[in-house]
Amino acid sequence: MKSFDYYKVSTVSQAISLLSKHGDKAALLAGGSDMLAMMKDRVEGPKLHAPLHMLDIKEIKELNYIRDEKNRVKIGAATTISDIAVSPLILNKYPLLAQAAGQVAVPQIRNVGTLGGNLCQRPRCWYFRGKAFKDCFRKGGNNCYAPGGENQYHAIFGGENCYMVCPSDMAPALAALNARVEIAIAKGNRMIPVEQFYTRPGKNILKETTLGPAEMVVAVEIPASAPGSRGTFIKLKERQAFDFALVSVAAMVTMKGDTVADARIVFGGIAPFPLRASGAEAALKGKRITEGMAAACEAAVKGAEPLSNNGYKVKATKGVLEQALSSLA
Amino acid sequence: MAKEFKVVGKKVERVDAFERLTGEAKYTSDVYLPGMLYAKILRSPHPHAKVVNITTSKAQALPGVKAILTPADVPDFPIHKRETPPTVVMPVLATTARYAGDEILAVAAVDEETADEAVELIKVEYQPLPFVLDAEDAVKPTAPKLYPEGNAIQEKADITIRGDIDEGFKQADVILEGKYKTHMLQHTTLEPRVTVARWDGKRLTVWDSHKAPFNLRTGLAEALNIKVNQVRVLTHFIGGDFGDKGNLERQHVIAALLAKKTNRPVKLEFTREENYLGAHHRYPTTWYLKYGAKKDGTLTAIQVKLYADSGAYYHFDGAWNSLEIPQKVYRCPNVRLEGWNVFTNKPEGGHMRCVGHPAGMFPQEVHMDRLAEKLGIDPLAFRLKNYARKEDGDQDRKIPFSSCGMEDCVRLAAERFGWESRWRKPGTSEGPVKKGLGVAFQSCRHGSQFGPMSAIIKLDPDGTIELMNGLNDSGGGQKTTMAMIAAEGLGIPYEAVEVTTGDTDSTTDAGGPSGSRGTASVGNAVMAAVRDAKNQLLDAAAELLKKKKEDLEIRDAQIFVKGEGGKSLSYKEVLSRAPSPIIGRGTARPPVNTATHGFGAHFAEVAVDTRTGKVEVLKLIAAHDVGRTISRIGCENQIQGGAVMGIGFGMLERQHVDRQTGICTNPNMVDFKIPSILDVPIVEPIIVESDDPLGPFGAKGVGEPPYGVPAPAIANAIYNAVGVRFSEIPVNIRSVLDGIEKRQG
Predict the structure, then answer these.
(1) What is the CATH number of the domain that holds B210?
(2) Which residues of A touch B (CB under 8 A)?
(3) With A298 labelled, which of A194, B398, B547, B558 sits at a CA distance of 20 to 30 A?
(4) Out of B666, B737, B741, whose CB is closest to A126?
């Protein structure tokens, strides 16, 4: 690992001022479970450099909480994934989110990994992570190795010029819950829906989020679910512990009697961002779940553009949605 | 008749359990010597390239850098060499890189970071060459050549004919052909390869995570052109080998040369990534099978053609190893085997648990399942009709097996599994999650006696009994097993035996724990040493008791006069009064004209979710004929551990190489997926004891046999559930979903 300056940061404003000063040469350290590994593995490229300034935000108290605020719940960015998975408040109000948290990596990583880190995790694409693949677009190079290479874990939607998939389990879950990300900026805070927090490779190939250089995620705010709502999170993975999603789905339905009044369905693992399945949602509305299910599954994969080795993800996407909806019916 | 044992077959605590569990055990990784330097290797980023120029000036100028080793600095000694043409040599450092990760030069510096930085500062100019990654591509005349003579090697034995293959197919009512593939795997030992080298004048001491210290000692002495007794190898605790870590490798010579050059101790420890690139691998295989059988299920012909992908260098005849063993599971008079070892620009193929056998088990046992279906016979009944009995033995050598417990394995496992009552025709399970049952047989000569076998047992005046034994314990429990054999043989408690291994200065060569040979081979040497010591002990006791030696016996640590109840001396008393310590020496030789095989059968039950392709292994019963159980816990652990690793082989693990660049995409434990506890059922071992006449107390080996069986048993079970056949492993979500889609058209 290359050496860096270490700063123990005790307030958000201190972190923002250091970020403003050092720009993209600085990085935030919370759990560090993946960022330090990337640094040790020397994952670098023409436009990807190991941070020279490490701002340790682990002990900023104002970032570590799960709070009931009447019509919403707020979770601080430095809250660990474990705390979310076992929080009685989350289990009671948003069981879908607790399910997602409980499926992240392994307990040891959940104990140090944080919500903010999970949302901002860099891609796990093995071309991005492999230090020998220097020409990767996302590292500032001129190539995407995935279309002509080993692409069984890559995107079937939204690839454009980069086929990595959003590795987060929390992002699709929070998007399905219609959550917003609270971001600290130089003066105050701004709020942005989880879906809009992520960008597309076509818009910015070097970054996955819309986070500015002197900004940081400080919290996530989840609105109260409408009466009659229920949801579930299903993660399909090759290995049952310590694996990223081949495809995951977070599905929320709001029932009015027997029929679906509203639905929010978001996929992980198949696009470079959490993928909202509006077509599938529309196919369910006004119908009983069992009636709309087949059409919803078909709608979910409409427009999929699989690569040479990941055609199975189309069927798997339909499969996890069918499982999810069956369990909600 | 059941034999009565005091120690053998019992559940005992491992001799080194305390050290291992408390962290007191020192692995090579834990060795830190005063003034020690850290070495790093510069590896080729290209799968095939000539090194044109090396510039080290910037690295040399970096403070803390103590030595740089380039190809020009190393002796012209081949790490691996094939003597007969085409001659294939693996130099200590490569001037032509033959895989992405090939070792070009090495640096020693005061710490790892400095060594890493120095490696980055060295400029190597390469001339990239065309490369080839697949064995079948590599044998085409147009393929880029790794060696001037070409990419394919066939040893003499790689074409074998038993009987008349044409006649065999003529007799067949049903003939079935199939193509199968297995892929590259890496052992993923918890402790990666690591070497520490230190010179004291002319003497070299090497600490290493190595299973065969005497192999390493000889290899190093030859490479450095010194005498073997100038080298001492210490391998006290080893974080797993699984078939790797058995030979002299480049890293050993590099560490020794850097230590010599700097006159300081040098540690060379592979990172996890380096271990995936630079250690050995299970070699990929491509198979063409053609089997023939009569309507009544009698096998009449087995024809196999195999391409074994050696990777960039040649270590041994992998083709033969994969071809020879599987076909011997079944009785068949007409056999034709053809194998090729093929070079590709991939990491080195080598030994991995059970070597070539598992790669051949998968195609054979899936093919047998298909053949049974084509014949309309239950897959278990078809196997039972054809498996090679004791009297059939090794059909190539026409020697009956020394023992055979196959029938008991199958009977006991099938009963517990409920095969007869639960097995249904494929695809009859209802609902989106379908259940299926599968079976596979196994038999191989692993677990017989071969290699050097020697042991010394010291009985000191204070009553200490020390077994000094060159057989290492990489985690398989060999130390415990040998202590149990010694205790049983001497008639003393197991706890009284202390075991010294892992030091070439204080033990004698007993080979490595490979080929499941530890218990069966070295156990015989331990028994020979015990007999020698016991003789001397009885001599001493006879003198004290003023009796004839023949009239004495040892029971429960006491020496009795036969027929005279009560009159006895403890062995400790005898030792304390004996004029000199007792030293028992034992050697053993591999028996000639014998055929010892281990046998096994696995039964698997799976649930396949047809929506998502997810397969859950619900049950795995693993029955093995081990001859005799020495350490019960060790034996069950080996069966369970082997089967779990075999589930990884069948369902999860594959080292991928990018087809465009020839670079490995997953040299890490996140993307190279060994099974987690959530991926495996509780493997249920069934132990069958056939009391082999050649092994110690009737024991055969068990370290390897359980590994290759789960993959085909599970593949067959998935077929039984959803009607999808697999021609490749690992079988995973992708292949299940692709298979279901193909079936639905």
Answers:
(1) 3.90.1170.50
(2) 1, 3, 41, 106, 124, 126-127, 129-130, 132-133, 145, 148-150, 152, 236, 238-244, 246, 309-312, 315-316, 318-320, 322-323
(3) A194
(4) B666
Q: What is the pLDDT of residues A25-77, one digit of tens each?
A: 999 999 999 999 999 999 999 999 999 999 999 999 999 999 999 899 999 99
**Do residues B646 and B604 lie in contact, with contact meaning Cβ atoms separated by under 8 Å?**
no
Catalytic residue among B117, B149, B704, B728: B704
Instruction: Provide the total of helices (H) and of strands (E) in chain A, helices listed first.
Output: 13, 12
Helices and strands, counts by H and E, chain B: 19, 31
Q: For residue B653, what are the domain limits?
A: 405-445+594-745
Q: With CB atoms and an 8 Å threshold, state whether B733 touches A236.
A: yes
Residues B472 and B436 in one domain: no
Is the per-residue pLDDT at B687 higher than 90? yes
Residues comprising chain A, all counted: 329
Residues B61 and B202 in one domain: yes
Which residues in chain A are contacts of B679 at CB distance < 8 A? 239-241
Residues B370 and B417 in one domain: no
Residues B658, B732 within the same domain = yes
Is there a contact between A322 and B611 if contact means CB atoms under 8 Å apart? yes
Instruction: Give the best residue of A124, A145, A315 to mutate against chain B (max B CB count within 10 A).
Output: A315
Residue pLDDT, tens place only, A73-99: 999 999 999 999 999 999 999 999 999
Q: How far is CA B50 from the centre of its chain?
A: 34
Asked if the model's pLDDT at residue B581 lies above 70, the reply is yes
Dihedral sign of CA atoms A309, A311, A312, A317 in order: positive
Confidence grade of residue B2 (pLDDT, cut at 50, 70, 90): low
Q: What is the ipTM of this complex?
A: 0.96
pLDDT of residue B423: 94
Amino acid identity for residue A145 in this structure: Y
Provide the 8-state DSSP code for B496: G
Residue in the block written with tokens 């009994």: B465
For residues A216-227, give the mean pLDDT. Answer: 97
**Residue B399 covered by a domain:** no
Percentage of chain A exceeding pLDDT 70: 100
Query: Is the same domain home to B54 and B101?
Result: yes
Cβ pairs A/B, distance under 8 A: 98
Number of domains forming the structure of chain B:
4
Same domain, B538 and B618: no
- In our burial notation (b when 16+ CB lie closer than 10 A, e otherwise), range A196-214 reads ebbbbbeeebebbbebeeb
Which of B526, B554, B588 represents a domain boundary (last residue)?
Answer: B588
Alpha-carbon distances, residue B655 vs B27, B137, B275, B346, B392 (angstroms): 27, 19, 12, 10, 39
- Of B733, B658, B730, B648, give the one whose Cα is nearest residue B683: B648
- B439, burial (CB in 10 Å: exposed 0-12, middle 13-18, buried 19+): buried
Q: What is the CATH number of the domain that holds B660?
A: 3.30.365.10
Residue B2 lies in a domain: no
State the Cα–Cα distance between residues B609 and B497, nearest whole angstrom.
52
Tokens representing B587 are 């050697």
Please report whether residue B702 resides in a domain: yes
pLDDT tops 90 at residue B104:
yes
Instruction: Sort out which chain A residues have CB atoms less than 8 A from B618's CB and list them.
Output: none
B6 in a structural domain: no
In this structure, the answer to whether residues B195 and B180 fall within a common structural domain is no
Q: Which two tokens stand for residue B349?
A: 């193929």
Tell me the per-residue pLDDT of A130-165, one tens digit each, with 9 for 90 and over: 999 999 999 999 999 999 999 999 999 999 999 999
Domain boundary among B567, B588, B609: B588
CA atoms in the 13 A half-sphere facing the CB of A33: 22
Using an 8 Å Cβ cutoff, are B213 and B504 in contact?
yes
Would you state the pLDDT for residue B157? 78
